[in-house]
Design goal:
Helix content: under 10%
CATH architecture: Sandwich
Largest sheet: 5 strands, antiparallel
Number of domains: 1
CATH topology: Immunoglobulin-like
Order of helices and strands: EEEEEEE
Strand content: over 45%
Number of helices: 0
Shape: elongated
CATH class: Mainly Beta
Distance between the termini: 14 Å
Length: 88
Amino acid sequence: MGQTITVTATVTTAAGTPTGSVALLDNNGVQVGSSVNLPNSGSTQIVSFGPLELALGAHSIVAKYSGDGTFQTSSSAPSLIEHIRKPR
């Protein structure tokens, strides 16, 4: 069994308030947890995911914004998260 983690994603625009949601995708595009709706709080919006449980090993996590009527869908660069077994 792996560890639980919390991941934070930020959606930023030059102007306007994006709506929609953000999802986290693990290796090979598999969604981790549920999508989180943006809070409609201005041009910079922060959402948190967690606690999430990932299996032991390396995970390449991408945050994907769904887009809306004004802003296009977009994805972050992959972030590498590694879980190692704790010594006993």
